[in-house]
Design brief:
By secondary structure, this protein is mostly beta strands. It is built from no helices and 39 strands.
């Protein structure tokens, strides 16, 4: 159970009904994804794809990298699940991996592009309007395979982590908060790294790293010792070489798990985390495609459990999760050759995830699940977005009487942080800022219940709220919103305190 607490600016007034909302209708049936909608990138054929709100309009944008032409493409989002055609910008030669974060604490997102052909990377500071300044080039120890931007040193500043394409090494470049990085610390591996991800795998509040690759049938977790140092790697034997890794709390126990593609068998592995940095394989699903280049984690069928999209060959396959097991899959069509990148994101900001992939046809394809909205749910308001765009709220089913599995779901919130769930009414569609902190509230202050809540490493929260079996509640509307505290000082939120807020959700109790 999550502890109840009082927000410093809001009084607790208990509701006669405490419910919750998450994804969609649930059940075991796979959602019927529609035909992917392709949006041209205008030349960037995409060796890497990332999603973030570059122009600070509350709508997620898509950035793709073109290794052959040495440039990136920006496809701006409209907030309704659609993207505008891409605008190309020159970067560095052979750009194979990109990552986005606020590097210089100006609340504008910046980009790091690393070369897979040469030993260099470039920092491209953001202008806050969807464009970037010219690249400032610096040296890598080797051509890069993967890059991450995260606060690995624990000083509140964003650092750069890169893995090698040619050596059994990865490197950490400490950020200075001004848009550049220090000389790297290089760490040796026992294999050529193919996968690099981050997360707090031992639950000590620090960012850890996980690596896997060719020459080792294992996953190594590098637990942070603070200041950019790491404890000796925790080695988990998984019986297969892992070519790709992705992070998520698949069984919703508060401990991060991993999913991996076996380079030996081609299966999608579910690796359960023990909270101390070790992982064990608990399920495997056969994939029907060829070599998988990329994984993306999200709740695509709205049942509250995380699923995985695997891109490889000429298709994307979505494998549906149900805690500690996989429970079937669905192939997404399209026909174009999928290259190396797939992403999961709630680009519409309504609490439901889409699958986005970069294709060899110089376009980004967007696939949405065709699911009817559960009875009793509707969204309103826009909230105060953070770096990932508008913060969505939805539910894992209808708020009907006796629905003991009902739960609120939040998407696109700041990652691995805390916030407050607000329940009450009446609704304030336009929103107001009664406390003068730069955050829109969509719930009136006359009747509010607050509770402390937390997001996971994906910026997602599932908040169970069983609906009582009380006929007197039928027709009762409950207005819901969440507030979130940013993690890094250079937050994208307009609030000077780094606070963001979700859109509003109305849950009307059904018979």
């Amino acid at each position: 159970m999550t502890p109840r607490t009082t927000a410093c600016i809001l009084a607790i007034l208990l509701l006669p009904f405490a419910a919750a909302c998450s994804g969609s209708s649930g059940g075991s049936a796979a959602p019927n994804f529609g035909v992917p909608i392709g949006v041209p990138t205008n030349g960037a054929t995409a060796d890497s794809l990332v999603i973030a709100d570059l122009d600070r309009d509350g709508h997620p944008d898509v950035v793709v990298a073109d290794a052959a032409l040495g440039r990136i493409g920006v496809l701006r989002g409209d907030g309704a699940g659609s993207l505008a055609p891409g605008v190309a910008t020159a970067s560095i030669g052979g750009v194979a991996a990109i990552a986005i974060a606020d590097l210089d604490l100006d609340r504008k997102l910046d980009l790091v592009a690393a070369s897979g052909a040469g030993d260099d990377y470039a920092v491209m500071l953001g202008n806050g309007d969807g464009s970037f300044q010219p690249p400032v080039v610096a040296t890598l120890p080797w051509p890069a395979r993967k890059v991450l931007l995260a606060d690995v040193t624990g000083d509140g500043l964003v650092d750069l982590v890169a893995s090698s394409r040619s050596a059994a090494e990865f490197a950490v470049f400490a950020g200075n908060g001004a848009g550049s990085f220090a000389t790297p610390q290089v760490f040796a591996l026992g294999y050529l790294p193919a996968a690099l991800v981050c997360g707090d795998f031992d639950r000590d509040g620090r960012v850890d790293l996980a690596t896997a690759g060719v020459g080792g049938a294992r996953v190594d977790v590098w637990r942070s010792a603070g200041g950019g140092a790491f404890l000796p790697a925790v080695v988990s034997s998984i019986g297969n070489q892992a070519g790709v890794l992705a992070v998520g709390d698949f069984d919703d126990d508060g401990v991060l798990d991993l999913t991996a593609v076996s380079a030996t068998t081609g299966e999608l592995l579910l690796l359960h985390g023990d909270g101390h940095g070790s992982f064990a394989t608990i399920d495997a699903a056969a994939l029907s495609g060829g070599s998988v280049e990329s994984l993306a984690v999200g709740d695509f069928d709205g049942d509250g459990w995380l699923d995985v999209a695997a891109a490889g060959g000429a298709q994307i396959e979505v494998v549906f999760g149900q805690g500690v097991v996989w429970r079937g899959s669905e192939l997404l069509g399209g026909g174009a050759a999928v290259t190396r990148s797939v992403a999961a994101h709630d680009i519409g900001g309504d609490g439901r995830c889409e699958v986005l992939c970069a294709t060899g046809a110089a376009e980004v394809a967007v696939s949405s699940g065709r699911r009817a909205a559960p009875a009793g749910l509707s969204n309103y308001g826009v909230g105060t977005p953070d770096c990932a765009g508008r913060i969505g709220m939805w539910a894992n089913g209808s708020p009907r009487l006796g629905n003991l599995e009902f739960a609120y779901t939040v998407t696109n919130a700041p990652r691995s942080t805390f916030g407050f769930l607000l329940q009450g009414g009446p609704e304030d569609v336009a929103g107001s800022d009664p406390f003068g902190i730069g955050v829109l509230l969509h719930i009136g202050l006359g009747f509010v219940n607050t509770e402390l809540v937390f997001t996971d490493a994906l910026g997602r929260a599932v908040l169970p709220r069983p609906v009582p079996n009380d006929p007197g509640l039928v027709g009762l509307p409950v207005y819901v919103q969440t507030l979130w505290q940013g993690v890094v000082p250079g937050t994208c939120a307009s609030s000077s305190q780094g606070i963001s807020s979700s859109i509003g959700l109305i849950c009307t109790v059904q018979q």
